[in-house]
User: Which sequence fits this backbone?
């Protein structure tokens, strides 16, 4: 099994099916049609060579392999979501970085006095 064969969106659908146990409900929550979710499940089944979910009177029941994958997939998706939505913010007053400014002689004469004054007031 090559990871390049797995589309991240297929794992998102897999996760939603684990939660909802319904193709239609998973589609509604993901903003997809029922056929789109079914197609995603078909692609994931082919890539992983397992049924993953079986249709029963209780809804879509995960296979043992799907249950085996559940925790690592949920962990991976949550980790990605956190990484993509969290950004380090820059606080200039707390920064210990060193900045180097490069400019021409005229730039130095024009920009340095007001810059140094502003830095002296804030530092």
Assistant:
């Amino acid at each position: 099994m090559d990871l390049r064969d797995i589309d991240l969106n297929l794992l998102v659908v897999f996760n939603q099916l684990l939660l909802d146990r319904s193709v239609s409900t998973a589609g509604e929550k993901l903003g997809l049609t029922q056929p789109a979710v079914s197609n995603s499940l078909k692609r994931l089944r082919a890539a992983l060579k397992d049924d993953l979910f079986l249709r029963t009177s209780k809804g879509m029941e995960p296979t043992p392999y799907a249950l085996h994958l559940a925790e690592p997939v949920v962990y991976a998706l949550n980790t990605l979501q956190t990484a993509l939505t969290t950004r380090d913010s820059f606080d200039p007053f707390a920064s210990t970085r060193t900045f180097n400014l490069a400019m021409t002689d005229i730039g130095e004469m024009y920009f340095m006095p007001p810059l140094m004054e502003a830095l002296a007031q804030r530092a």
Remarks:
- The mean pLDDT is 92.
- Strands lie at 53-56, 59-62.
